[in-house]
Design a protein that fits this description.
424 residues, alpha+beta
Length: 424
């Protein structure tokens, strides 16, 4: 059955439509034939049974009259009268001890017997048996059914013949569209079905480039204040010339794990923004606090974990860290305006991160954040630079616990994914 359906799906469209329509027609008409045959058989049986029971009662009455008169010839004549009818094949009379008194006709296998008691003066003197022959009726019913089946087949063939030209016209329209696409795609399809050919041509088209983009459909998440943690990988340019490829990949992998893990605690979005420069964006609401506080917490974790990684790998992971705020987010492929707007902020933060000043530097806008001031102090360096200061006790406890998880993550046993065992 599956092979048949597979072959049907690969047939031309006109053939599929014609066969489907003919099959539905045949199934519908055969269902009607089945219902009609059952109804006819039921009505016929009911009529014949009622007629046979009435005839058996009439024969029993006549047989009682002949038996009471002792006329065996008359009894045989009555039985012969019924046995000669086309509906019945045999009739006989039995006494109370089931001894046969008279019989006419031949009892055939499969014939149905109808019995009725013979009563004389209110006493049962025996019974008669009248055998009904239904073979002729069955033959007539079978002839009718096969005739209707043949008619169903003829109707299905007619539907097939009428539907196929319609399918061919529809298929020709699809073939014209396929021919127009052939010049664009340059592809060829092995299928002989027109719809499958059209699907193959459409799949070969660069549909992503054909999608319309509405510049006015902005993503709201990119139009809110966004804190940015700029990470300048100061030591990576030197390692490009001094480390072999496998060692360099391992170094970058550790950087990736630390940045990804620290950002994950505070819902940050990690991105490469310049050569040797990463940025982590923090926006929207988060249980950990304001975007600037989350950026500062992530920077503190990254600073501490870099020192741990240096002890582990004997390489320098210390990066320049600067935190700023942009009115817009990083944007995406649906809306590039926020990404263009934020470039000037990234340039300013990159200059800040590359300063030869220790600590996590802050832009003036970021230093004014209320959420940051609640949990962290701000230090002024040489009356020019602002950096993160001391951290309040409750928030420091949280950071210390997170730092322990980062410590376990720096050299995970699997070493396959940047997040390691972390749940994000």
């Amino acid at each position: 059955m599956n092979r048949l359906l597979h072959r049907l799906r690969n047939q031309p469209l006109s053939q599929q439509l014609a066969l489907s329509a003919a099959g539905c027609c045949l199934l519908t008409t055969l269902t009607l034939v089945l219902v009609a045959a059952k109804a006819t058989h039921s009505i016929q049986n009911t009529t014949l049974i009622e007629h046979a029971r009435a005839a058996a009662a009439q024969l029993a009455a006549r047989a009682g009259t002949e038996l009471s008169a002792g006329d065996r010839l008359g009894l045989a004549a009555e039985l012969q009268f019924y046995a000669d009818q086309t509906l019945f094949v045999a009739a006989r009379v039995l006494d109370v001890e089931d001894m046969e008194l008279a019989t006419r006709g031949q009892i055939m296998y499969g014939s149905r017997a109808f019995q009725h008691p013979v009563v004389i003066d209110g006493n049962t003197a025996g019974r008669i048996e009248l055998y009904l022959d239904l073979s002729e009726q069955r033959g007539a019913l079978e002839t009718l059914i096969w005739g209707l089946v043949a008619l169903s087949a003829l109707l299905s063939i007619a539907v097939y013949a009428l539907t196929r030209p319609v399918g061919q016209k529809l298929a020709s329209n699809i073939s014209e569209a396929v021919a127009q696409l052939d010049a664009v795609t340059g592809e060829d399809s092995a299928s002989i079905n027109e719809v499958h050919k059209l699907q193959d041509r459409i799949n070969a088209l660069p549909l992503e480039l054909l999608k319309s983009r509405d510049p006015s459909n902005h993503g709201e998440e990119h139009y809110t204040d966004t804190a940015i943690l700029c990470i300048s990988l100061k030591h990576l340019p030197g390692y490009l010339d001094t480390l072999d490829e496998s060692r360099l990949q391992q170094y970058v992998s550790v950087l990736h794990r630390m940045a990804y893990g620290c950002a994950g605690f505070y819902g940050g979005d990690l991105s490469v923004v310049r050569q040797f420069t990463l940025a982590i964006y923090f926006s929207s609401d988060h249980p950990s606090g304001s975007p600037v506080l989350r950026a500062a917490s992530c920077a503190w974790l990254l600073s501490k974990s870099s020192k741990m990684a240096e002890k582990q790998d004997r390489l320098s992971f210390t990066a320049g860290l600067a935190i700023g705020v942009s009115e817009l987010g990083q944007g995406d492929d649906n809306d590039i305006y926020p990404g263009l707007y934020v470039q000037s902020t990234l340039d300013e933060l990159l200059d800040l991160a590359n300063q030869q000043v220790e600590g996590i530097l802050l832009s003036s806008y970021a230093a004014e954040d209320d959420g940051l001031a609640t949990h962290m102090g701000i230090d002024v360096i040489d009356e020019k630079w602002m950096a993160l200061g001391e951290i309040s006790g409750a928030h420091l406890d949280l950071l210390e616990r997170q730092l322990q998880l980062i410590k376990r993550m720096i050299t995970p046993p699997d070493g396959d994914t940047p997040q390691g065992f972390l749940p994000f």
